[in-house]
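Problem 12. The chain below contains 245 residues. Write out its predicted structure in token notation.
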Amino acid sequence: MAGKATVYALIPARSGSKGLPHKNILEVDGHPLIAYSIAFARKAGVDRIIVSTDSEQYRAIALRYGAECPMLRSEAASSDTAREEDILADLAANLPRHSIPLPDIWVWLKPVNPFRSIETVKDALRVLSEKSEVESVRIVSEADARLHAINAEGYLAPYGPGWDPHLSKMPRTRFPKVYFPYNLEVFRHEGWVKRYANFMGNKIVHIVASRITGFDVDDGETFEIVKALVEMRPRPDFVAKHIHL
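Solution.
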């Protein structure tokens, strides 16, 4: 990559969550959840922090905590079926109209996860800077491959290959290492331009982070867990070092 790449944090914050209404702005330790992502982006040293939302209320919160939200998200990018590539398309169409040039790299930050590592994002940006063949970087955490699903008869059954039918329990060492991939993504804007829905491409470098970085708010129970961890005093080191507000 010639010269210094421009890097924007992107925080997608739609207001229409069905499972847990307004989960993006639920208060944790005196701050809306989205504020933790904004604070992280500021410490990560990105060039701009862009919040994409369909809500004036969310927009006001984003501005108060130091992010930019030059326009509200379009209807097409705000529906229940809208995907990440639709959000990127909305930004690509509208940011230049607000005199904001598009970046070389996006750092995608879910607003419902307050636990992140600055070092992993810096490492990801370094990888993209030094290795032009790499299309994107994912911050991941270790997961367990021993998943089960409900079979056609309605019974619990092993999911995926590698299971010995003569054993009721299988050791972890019999399976390959697997990772939860949705902690945080860092990718080139040109990937969206070239491949749209496959914007991260296939040459994805992984950086393994603490399992707490893969934990976010999805329902009332996970919200209470996140709230308890963040508001704990004193905070355990593994929690404190992943909170940036």
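Discussion. The CA atoms of residues 10 and 53 lie 11 Å apart. Students who got a different answer should revisit the alignment rule from Section 12.3.
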